[in-house]
Amino acid sequence: MTSNVAVVGLGAMGLPMAARLAERFTVSGFDIAAERLALAAGHGVEPAPTAAAAVTGADAVLVAVRTGEQLHDLLFGEDGLASHLAPGAVVVLTSTVGTTGIDAIAAKLAEHGAHLVDAPLSGGPVRAGEGDLLIVVGAALEALAQAMPVLEQLSSTLSIVGDKPGDGQALKTVNQLLCGVHIAAAAEALALADALGLDRERTLEALTAGAANSFMLGNRGPRALQAHEEHGAEVLSRLDIFVKDLGIVGDAARAAHLAVPVAAAAEQLFLLGEAQGLGALDDSAVIRVVAPELRRTASRKEA
Amino acid sequence: MTSNVAVVGLGAMGLPMAARLAERFTVSGFDIAAERLALAAGHGVEPAPTAAAAVTGADAVLVAVRTGEQLHDLLFGEDGLASHLAPGAVVVLTSTVGTTGIDAIAAKLAEHGAHLVDAPLSGGPVRAGEGDLLIVVGAALEALAQAMPVLEQLSSTLSIVGDKPGDGQALKTVNQLLCGVHIAAAAEALALADALGLDRERTLEALTAGAANSFMLGNRGPRALQAHEEHGAEVLSRLDIFVKDLGIVGDAARAAHLAVPVAAAAEQLFLLGEAQGLGALDDSAVIRVVAPELRRTASRKEA
Question: Which of A100, A188, A213 is the mutation pick for testing B, counting most B CBs within 10 A?
């Protein structure tokens, strides 16, 4: 039975996840920022003075870190969490950090009698708070069973994509290749439509009705058309997240000696966007890299 | 009233379109290959001895050519069709040839009292014969009205994307940018999934269920997974069509001084595929450019 859950890291994703979990479990939380801890306390999360204190006695420990190295340090660094974990505890990795080093972390955790559940997720803060995330999981059967109540509380779609840690990261890496390329392609397509004098709204409607459609075209396309307006589109997912995620894609492909030129070109567009100061904007703003401004849509018709 | 239709060019697409039109109209057809003409005659099409004879008295003339230059030659070259067209006839351009020169062709046709209807289509031969094509149209209102019975007989989806010839080509160009990139991205993604040791079928299922999905991933993905088998996937659309169409995309973007690096990378993959002898295979075979062979999917799980 999973009843005590710890959440280490109460950032943009960690806090709403902790709050959502507190509706069903006893949740202790920790964050180095005192104000995040106070915020969590207001959502039914028991604030712990240290990360070690938070995980003591927890059946499941949720961690949200930026890199595999950070995860390694958190678990095995000075006063690392690994030695504070309850016997048989599962550590649930919710971040997209890539596959590098995941095998080693899982093996080292096993030496401490704990298990890694590789469960990168997507959906953003709002959906996190509503238990509406999409999670892809790679984990051994027993660890998966123990983490399942926690994962179910957080997600509306749960895909078990493999039976070992790393499989979740691998699937998420491939997923992000497609998402990043599709957003960049939508940007190029809408910029080209504008340059050719087509009506942008009518074009988007025609494109999404046929073989050119993608989830991202339908979702980011309308927001890309707002990217040149004064306040731009609402930020649902930051542009610089794809700098990170397509970087992970590039690393993974390089390590496998696999050429992915289309993904590499998309990565360059997001890097250019970040360099141009668009990193904190909605990722659909990548259209501004190829089209710093839109031309008159009427130009062709007037010709 | 449109009642007499001519089809010039009875190739892979021209023949089934002519046969489909013959169910509703009087159709005369011409092709330089005698055996195509004979084949058409067996499907209710009246064979004409010359292209000029075929179009004489026709209210609508369907043409399927490879390039805008070929269209120009056909209409205005030696014994060109323009001088044989009935007054007020519409010339329906069904090919994807790009926007270059379309304005000039339309203007020259108008001097002969005829009108150009720019109606590039997609869907392939089988759907052509069933009237199940997708057509995007750019044409002036009157010409459009005259061509409409013909277009309706051929299509299940008809998008009027602009009010002048060239708008159809422009939309189709943007459409093909997305289709080509999505097929290439699906190839890279599935090759990466394989290299990371993921189960390919399960991966495809998880990817198509979420934000990574595209029409092409769902349609070409399963066929890409057959591309390494002895006979490969059934050819629904040839790989070298994207060499042509992404070439048109590149030309259009270059003429507009627009950078489309993602589309350009996809074009290079299709060019590499063609150079490697894959041009006549299904376009999903582009996966063989990045992954000449698939690795053992079991390798990661066995590790």
Answer: A188
- What are the beta bridge partners of residue A282? A238
Chain B interface disruption, residue of A134, A141, A174, A204, most B CBs within 10 A:
A174
**Catalytic residue of the set B108, B164, B172, B244:** B172
A180-196 residues labelled b (16+ CB within 10 A) or e (exposed):
bbbbbbbbbbbbbbbbb
Q: How many CA atoms lie within 13 A of A246 on its CB side?
A: 30
Q: pLDDT tens digits, residue range B104-127?
A: 999 999 999 999 999 999 988 899
Which of B171, B258, B290 comes nearest A259 by C-beta? B290
Give me Rg for the CA atoms of chain B.
Answer: 21
Distance CA A273, CA A269 (A): 6
d(CA B7, CA B91): 10
Vertex A193: Cα angle to B106 and B136 (nearest 5): 55
Q: How far is CA A147 from CA A8, A83, A142, B180, in A?
A: 16, 20, 9, 41
Distances (CA, A) of A262 to A58, A198, A210, B208, B290: 44, 26, 22, 19, 11
Q: How far is A246 from chain B (nearest CA, A)?
A: 12
For the purposes of burial, counting CB atoms within 10 Å of the CB of A89, is it exposed (0-12), middle (13-18) or buried (19 or more)? buried
- Decide if A172 is catalytic: yes
- What angle, 0 to 180 degrees and rounded to 10, lies between the N-to-C axes of helices B167-195 and B200-208? 140
CA distance A130 to A149: 15
Nearest CA-CA distance, residue B91 and chain A, Å: 21
CA dihedral A93, A95, A101, A107 (to 10 degrees): 0
Residues of A in contact with B186 (CB under 8 A): 178
Q: How far apart are CA A125 and CA A237, in angstroms?
A: 10
Distance separating alpha carbons of residues A139 and A204, to the nearest angstrom: 40
- ipTM value of the model? 0.92
For range A61-90, the mean pLDDT: 94
Tell me the domains of chain A and their CATH numbers: 4-164 (3.40.50.720), 170-302 (1.10.1040.10)
Give contacts of B270 with chain A, Cβ < 8 Å: none
User: Is A81 within 8 Å of A51 (Cβ atoms)?
Assistant: yes
Question: Which tens digit of pLDDT belongs to each residue from B89-108?
Answer: 999 999 999 999 999 999 99
Which of chain B's residues have a Cβ under 8 Å away from the Cβ of A262? 181, 184-185, 188, 262, 265-266, 269
Nearest to B42 by CA among B61, B24, B56, B22: B22
- Nearest-neighbour CA in chain A from B22: distance (Å): 27
Predicted confidence (pLDDT) per residue in A193-234, tens digit: 999 999 999 999 999 998 999 999 999 999 999 999 988 899
Q: CB B170 to CB A219 under 8 A?
A: no
